[in-house]
Amino acid sequence: MTPADAREALQFHACVHPDVDDPRWQKGFLGSLRPFTGLREENFHEVMSALRVFAEPLQADMVPREVISTLVGICHFARAWGVEPEGMLRRNDLIGDTDVARLDEWISTISYALTMIMDGDVAEAFDEYDRARRRP
Predict the structure, then answer these.
(1) How far apart are CA 64 and CA 124, in angstroms?
(2) How far, in Å, CA of 89 to CA of 86, rounded?
(3) 84: Cβ–Cβ under 8 A, 6 or more apart, which residues?
(4) The predicted structure's pLDDT at residue 88
(5) Most buried in the list 61, 67, 93, 106, measured by CB within 10 Å?
(6) Paired strand residues for 33
């Protein structure tokens, strides 16, 4: 994935890409939550892949604001809509406990990786994520 591909992917996953008619907008990380069409594991992995592409630029003194904004937005809105007890998905019984736990884990993984990258520890940022992917 190139940096341009990663930026575009994050824009679609955060529902901020200007091409709202592109299916990636509705099927992305946040798009699939509103309206809820189910969790898509491939969205989580694509966000993590994009984050890995930006690991080095995010350690610079001047970081790409748009990348930070999309990642924080994905985490914030996914938590507000799908994890919080009064969020629209839980309040309206649209998401089950298993999916809530899985979504919460994805959000925690993304935000932890972002935090570790910003602190300069890229190896730690993806360590648990990579180990979990290797487990049978």
Answers:
(1) 21
(2) 8
(3) 90
(4) 96
(5) 106
(6) 36
CA 43 – CA 41 distance, rounded (Å): 5
Please enumerate in sequence order all residues whose Cβ is within 8 A of that of 36, keeping only pairs 6 or more positions apart, or say none.
82, 89, 94, 95
Cα–Cα dist 65/62, whole Å: 9
Tracing tokens 């990579």 back to the chain, one arrives at: 130
Q: What is the dihedral of CA 81, 82, 83, 87, to 10 degrees?
A: 40
**pLDDT tens-place string over residues 58-96:** 888 778 889 999 999 999 999 999 999 999 999 999 999
Greatest pairwise CA separation for the chain in angstroms: 43
The per-residue pLDDT of the chain, averaged, comes to 95
- The predicted model scores a pTM of 0.93
Cα gap 80→51, rounded to integer Å: 21
Radius of gyration of the chain (CA): 15
CB atoms within 10 A of CB 130: 12
